[in-house]
Write a structure and sequence with these properties.
Elements (H helix, E strand, L loop, with lengths): L7 H12 L3 E4 L5 E6 L2 E6 L2 E2 L4 H8 L1 H10 L7 E5 L4 H10 L4 E5 L9 E4 L2 H12 L8 E6 L4 E8 L3 E8 L2 E3 L6 H8 L5 E2 L7 E2 L5 H9 L13 E3 L11 E4 L6 H13 L5 E8 L11 E7 L5 H4 L9 H9 L1 H5 L2
Parallel strand pairs: 12-13
Antiparallel strand pairs: 1-2, 2-3, 3-4, 5-8, 6-7, 6-8, 9-10, 9-16, 10-15, 11-14, 16-17
Length: 336
């Protein structure tokens, strides 16, 4: 039986390993999985293969370092700054006045979309967002990234240094009115979908949680959970698009322009020692040739969850777990 402590993506790799005759074991007291094929042992942790180096992890764990590396390679990134706890009020004011609104404020080493604030336009919301982002870490030198918000659609590109495996359009959690049900009831209906589960489950998408953040966003729209939307009216209940926040992942690999693939491969190869990644990519139109001003790369994740590529909300299964296994043991692909 596969441990429940493993990520869903990690469990899917084990399933693929068994299909390919690869033996596996979890090192006791850890979440490190060791795979053995023809007497050769290789390991991975969550979605991090042993072929990814410490330098790559260092670069990806600090969003500003990632941004600097990409920018030096001629890849478009949002304009922004990294601040620290000791940054004084004058500097925070200067950053706010210098950057074009709206803004995005997020922890420099965060994940899952936690403590991320978007569409910031006022000084009050800006300072509140900074305080929220710092709450992500108790570390003395924790940082917060403040960036200009790009107007476009958000995508997650899963890839190795050799190929793009899949591209998903990530859509924030939402409900569609039926003219009779309240937003609260529509959320309950959404949460019954078979593809959704709770954190730690074997489902690729998580349920929508009704919390303060959700209430606040509805209030911004002049709504509340008792509001009954008109039939066919789509109501977004989250600002961020992460599936961990109830969002939806729609496969669109087949419609991506070749220039998107080219940019993504250039990006992963810009990070020394990074063998597998998920790129958060925003563009005005993914089906068209990308220009310097038509896209931005938000960040690069060195341990991307890929169960959403195998089980997207809509679209094709891209067999990401199998591709991950082939990355660890390339000879398996050659034997197919």
């Amino acid at each position: 039986m596969v441990s429940k402590n493993l990520s869903n993506s990690s469990r899917l790799v084990i399933v693929e390993a068994e299909k390919h005759g690869v033996k596996w074991k979890i090192i006791p007291g850890t979440q490190i999985v060791t795979l053995t094929y023809k007497g050769i042992e290789r390991s991975y942790y969550h979605q991090l293969p042993s072929s990814t180096t410490a330098i790559a992890k260092y670069a990806c764990n600090n969003k500003k370092i990632t941004s600097n590396l990409l920018q030096q390679a001629g890849i478009t990134v949002p304009r922004g700054f990294r601040i620290r706890r000791e940054s004084d009020g004058d500097f925070l004011d200067t950053v706010f006045e210098y950057l074009k609104k709206p803004l995005v404020v997020k922890p420099s080493n965060g994940s899952w979309g936690d403590e991320v604030s978007v569409n910031i336009t006022t000084k009050k919301k800006y300072l509140e967002a900074i305080e929220l982002a710092f709450s992500n870490s108790n570390k003395k030198h924790a940082g917060v990234i403040i960036e200009e918000m790009f107007a476009g659609n958000e995508y997650r590109i899963l890839l190795s240094r050799e190929k793009v495996i899949g591209i998903l359009n990530r859509i924030p959690a939402n409900v569609v009115g039926d003219g009779e049900s309240s937003i609260k009831r529509l959320i309950a209906t959404r949460n019954k979908e078979d593809i959704r589960g709770t954190k730690g489950s074997d489902k690729s998408h998580l349920k929508i949680c009704i919390d303060k953040s959700l209430h606040d966003y509805l209030t911004e729209q002049g709504l509340n959970i008792s509001t009954v939307p008109k039939k066919g009216k789509q109501i977004f209940v989250r600002k961020v698009s992460n599936v961990s926040q109830g969002g939806e992942a729609i496969d669109c690999t087949d419609i991506a322009h070749p220039s998107v693939i080219k940019i993504a491969l250039k990006a992963i190869r810009t990070i020394p020692g990074l063998s597998f990644a998920g790129i958060d990519f925003m563009t005005k139109d993914i089906s068209k040739k990308q220009t310097k001003n038509s896209y931005v790369i938000i960040e690069i994740n060195d341990t991307p969850g890929f169960d959403i590529h195998d089980y997207p909300y809509k679209g094709k299964n891209r067999h990401a777990a199998r591709e991950f296994l082939y990355l660890i043991f390339p000879e398996l692909k050659q034997n197919q």
